[in-house]
Amino acid sequence: MEFDLSTLLIGLPLAFALGWLASRLDLRQMRVENRQSPKAYFRGLNFLLNEQQDQAIDAFIEAVQNDPDTSELHFALGNLFRRRGEYDRAVRVHEHLLARADLTQAERDRAQHALALDFLKAGLLDRAEAALHKLEGTAHEQDARLALLAIYERSRDWAQASAIAAKLDSSSHGSFAPRQAHYLCEQAQALVAAGQVQEALDQLARARALAPQSPRPLIEQAQLLLQQGQAQAALQALLMVRQAAPQALPLVAALMARLAEQAGARETVLGILSQAQHEQPSIDLVQAIVTLESDPQRAREHFEQHLKTEASLLAASRWLAADPLMQADQAQGVRRAIERACGPLMRYRCAACGFEAKQHFWHCPGCQAWDSYPARRIEEL
Length: 381
Hints:
Blueprint: H1 5-49, H2 53-66, H3 71-83, H4 87-99, H5 105-122, H6 125-133, H7 141-154, H8 158-170, H9 177-193, H10 197-210, H11 216-227, H12 231-244, H13 249-263, H14 266-279, H15 283-292, H16 296-309, H17 313-321, H18 332-342, E1 348-349, E2 356-357
């Protein structure tokens, strides 16, 4: 076959023209996609700033479809699903991210952390625990440990909580010694319920050594010793509260007065309570002092003295209750009305969330904060 030079001369420009046209089409398609993806992304961001989460999710889904390889869009979408309470969709997004082979290690750790938060928010504590353990040695390690601590506290697994708190304490993340002391006290209560009194006392001694300024180990030690009939030893433990945590003395004032009578230390305890009342007046301290007073007139004078320093409806109601005139039948209705009005003032209030309770809690049942209840009644705050 004879080679035709004219065909070559015609074919080369044609091939060049077709190649140029194809490249232009590719560039045009790329520009269209690039314009569509940022447009959808910024539209979603605008909806998010205006707190229109439904529209934001739709926009981000469109952006992900236009650019499925962008991990940041997946993270944004997964976080939006979690905030809306659609945990199953958030889990699918983050599991899809983890299944990708092109993620960097930092992005993979971030996706693992996000997945753990999905499980935690959904209440799947066992799956959240397993996911959080995989974050050991990563940049999210501290956050994972704090989340694990919350899980173990919620499930009352105090041994595991203590182990995590020890790791946090050793990593310069703040002091967790007071919280570890609470964990030991919780374990001591379980031991008492199981009849292992000595082991419980050992746990309380460890708690005291770990957090010398915490009043709870001393208070629970005193209560346990009292149950064993050791009134003198129980009183000595409570007297140590005065040095360790004087602000907690109103919590134990009534028990101190009771033990003072049993241990024959009435004058000693009366002097300690009177000094504490002089330094920081409290209705609980006054009531304990009155309990130790043998003279009814002297008892009323303590309430009068408290009213001079504190405008207390609680003190006023008890001062009236000690008045012989208020014992008459005609005054019973007045007394009941005043006592009813004082009821809410006798509660304790969490300083973190405002949860109110008739009893003092070391661990708030509302917000799960530790040591958030002041040792004073609502009226005194």
